[in-house]
Sequence to fold (527 residues):
Amino acid sequence: MKKTEMSEATKALEAAIAPLKDKEAHAAREAATKQLATELSKRHRILGVELRVEKPAHSAAPKRQIAVLVVDYTQRRVIEVLTADGRVIKVSDLDGFQPAPIPEEIEEAQDLAQADERLARILENDDVFVSAFSPHRSAERKDREIGLRYAISESARDIRILAEAVVDLSDLKLVHVENFETGERD
Amino acid sequence: MATFGDFHHETGAGWSVYWRIPVFSGGGLEIWWADFQGHRVMWRGSQPFAIVPYHGGSPTYKDGVDAQCGGAPFTTLKHGAPNSFAPWKNPGPYIAGADTDAVVVTTTPAGDFDPATLVITAKFQCGWYQYVHRWEFTSDGDIHPSVAMGGHLNPNKPSVAHIHSMYFRIDLDIDGQYPHDVCEEFDHNNFSAAGDKWTALSAQGKQLHDIARARKWRVRSTTSQNNLKQFRAYEIELPRMAGPDKYSTGDVWATIYRGDGFQFGENVGAACTDEELTTSYAVGPLHPATTGDDIVLWVVVRHHHEPRNLGEEADHLPYHYEDFSIVPRSFIDVHSATGGQ
Fold:
């Protein structure tokens, strides 16, 4: 007789961990947006929605929870809203944590950086490409900053990073540029 | 079904396992609810961040969850993305649009020399580097988490040596009996009859390897026994090719579960070191003599990379794997031993 690999504890989780439905994700977003309506600035963005599972107490049934992650650029807050059955059950400020930037944020950072003529000049070369990184930050600074590296490649063996820039999406400005070719830095 | 963030179920080699790539953590592949022969072994396992200091004092990157210090999050690649600089230069064709484009699951029957296996693998772009996350589950009950480094050398420092310290978060729940586990440290002190000793940790904190003492760690249940009345346990066997340094200061941290949205690598790296694991995460008492605890271990796999930039690594980095093992002790009932299944 074939043994069952799955434990009884995992079987008890199956309903709580079933794939997220669009309708559920939508309801979670709506609930989070409504909950935070009076406290968020205009410049905020929902970064994502996903299932959240916490270990249940052994006597309790596992809950199906959905987390909504919100960044408020102006207020320099990263907020997690936990929902269940379309209702908010917990709101947490994730102090000090910066989630991975989403493509829209990287595009916004690139657009801001491109206004700098030094970086615009670098981009005139068709072999230049840009990639994102996460800059240094201190515990006190909560700005949403996106790093951009400008690199050139003519072959796999000939790649150089020409410059780095840091864009602050909280203040919508370029805060750092370093050109490795010329040594310029500000 | 979401493109990322859902749990996907797999079975094989006597295991039932879920995997997930989260939506917004940037921490790579996660393994959830790993059960062996009907008994829970692990609630969650992942390799959410890395710290990579270079010779010369700079840079020191923190990659993955809450990346900083010039590092980058782990961006999910399609599994067929080439091991080259191409996915860094032009990510569009290679970025996974859904987690199922990234993860490869293979099952292999037992052979003449090896147990059956269930293997779950995915690769991630991280700046110019690539990291491969791989979890192997064997029909002997072992788990072999591993990470490979590939992609391309730092373009501006191709010849500069550096150390990859890769941090695994391992939340073992022995037979699902949390919070009644203890964390113990093993030392081979000498060859006398009582020369080997397991010592229960009475406080959370940083642990250091000691090769001369064959040191290892285990999480042991205080409530669940196999049919020979032995308390079930899983051990951490950690090979070493490089030791701690001022950036990556320990080998294992014993701490406790404080939630699944908390202490998964965030708020580590303010000074481009792992000091927060010691000062914020692994803080507080353990209770081996009374209730036991819900133990969570942080385990570092480390590789000193002396670049072969004028040879084999000039074009790309052949994937280099480092791993450790999570091995059962008295976990299975003796009549159901599975060796060679």
